[in-house]
Amino acid sequence: MVDIFKIDLNFSDSPFYEWNSTTVLDGPFTPATKSTIICLSVLFFVIGAIGIAGNFLVIFAIIGDQRMRKSVTNLLIMNLAFSDLIIMISCIPDIIQFIGNKGWKLGLPLCKALRFTEVFALYASVMTLVSVCIERYVAIMHPIKAHIVCCRTRILHVISIIWPAAMICASPNLVFHVIMTADEEFTPCVMQFPDLIDFVIFKYCEFFLFYLIPLVLQVVLYIRMGLRLFSSETLRAMEPNVGKDKFAGAMKARKGVIKMLVAGVTVYFLSFSPHQVLLLYNTFSSTLFKETWSFLIFVNIMAYASSACNPLLYSIFCQKFRQKFQTLLSCCKKKRGTPLPSAIYLGCRSKNFPSKSVKTTVTEI
After folding, report:
1. Separation CA 25–CA 114 (nearest Å)
2. How far apart are CA 205 and CA 119, in angstroms?
3. Neighbour tally for 271: CB within 10 Å
4. Per the CB 3.0–4.6 Å rule, which of 11, 75, 158, 344 could disulfide with 64?
5. How far apart are CA 231 and CA 298, in angstroms?
6. Dihedral, CA atoms, 353, 354, 359, 360, nearest 10 degrees?
7. Predicted confidence band at 162 (pLDDT cuts at 50, 70, 90)?
8. Which 3-state string (H, E, C) describes 98-146?
9. Residue 133 and residue 123: Cα distance in Å, rounded?
10. Average pLDDT over residues 119-147
């Protein structure tokens, strides 16, 4: 292992790669061609538009349907959509400036505030993913206890804890982000600790708490859930109690939810794996990985895309979300002059949006 005090600050910073001291000391990256800039800019715009619109649809779909609101899983999914929406919006000025390759031009207060917002929303997203996994695990593996352990009140308490905890964990970003002056044309917003060892400790705490441990926990729990749901023993044991037709529908819905959530977790961790791989590589390798300017932009956009993927996954794997999205979009077309929330509550009542309270179970989505 290389001497840790000789490593340049060439680690991924926060949820996205940032300008680092390697960039400052070694000079600017070789500029990308205009065609590369145009392609990456278009890609970022498309991802941003899909992500913002999609997460808004998820939130409005759940809020506008009493039956969906009663599902504790949907409460967590709405919380996940809200955190992803914050990431999508707060990262717009950051990545636009990053693509421009001019450093940070919005001043130190916004440098600290936006990076802090990006990071605590990312942490909240990770904790929500873990909470959804645990809730699904209890509902599937211990269905009798699920109504007590995963009741609506407890889930709301979990959500109320997630956000303060995420802000506390992300608070170093408010303290240690500075604007570094490399030259008149390049003033990056970077996280700068007093000692390199403090920075490395922070990055590895982030690595374990918000990447490795959540990943291992979710993989283990989803494997156990999959074995239970897809086993022939489960089918033979439960079918006589509820009837063939109802059981088949319930099992299909549960399997669809598990597939959807597993796909979301997979996309998230694949999107952020390059950051963690680079962190490990630069720690243990005697030769640092030298990123190109285009590589950093692409990896940033890849990480940014993870927050845009969840609504697409809901549409692919969950029929109820797909129906709600279609209803919302059709209502928006009919009522272009009406704000979207009003359209949901006043003008979009249909068989897909029941106006009366409908009894649901803890496992429904």
Report:
1. 25
2. 14
3. 20
4. 344
5. 41
6. -10
7. very high
8. HHHCCECCCCHHHHHHHHHHHHHHHHHHHHHHHHHHHHHHHHHHCHHHH
9. 16
10. 90
- Contact call for residues 97 and 104 (beta carbons, < 8 A): yes
Paired with 178 in beta bridges are 190
In contact, 188 and 179? CB cutoff 8 Å: yes
Look up residue 144 and give its amino acid: I
In three-state secondary structure terms, 177 is: strand
Q: How far is CA 91 from the centre of its chain?
A: 13
Give the pLDDT confidence of 105-122 residue by residue, as tens digits. 888 999 999 999 999 999
Sequence-distant (6+) residues with CB within 8 A of 61 are 68, 321, 324, 325, 328
pTM: 0.77
Longest alpha-carbon distance in the chain: 75
Helices marked H in the chain — which ranges?
A: 21-26, 34-63, 66-69, 72-100, 108-141, 143-149, 152-170, 172-176, 196-207, 213-229, 232-242, 244-284, 293-317, 319-334, 340-342
- Give the Cβ contact number of residue 147 at 10 Å: 15
| Structure-block tokens of residue 274 | 């390059």
CA angle 86, 137, 239 (to 5 degrees): 130
Predicted local confidence at residue 233, as pLDDT? 66
The C-alpha angle 95, 96, 100, rounded to 5 degrees, equals 110
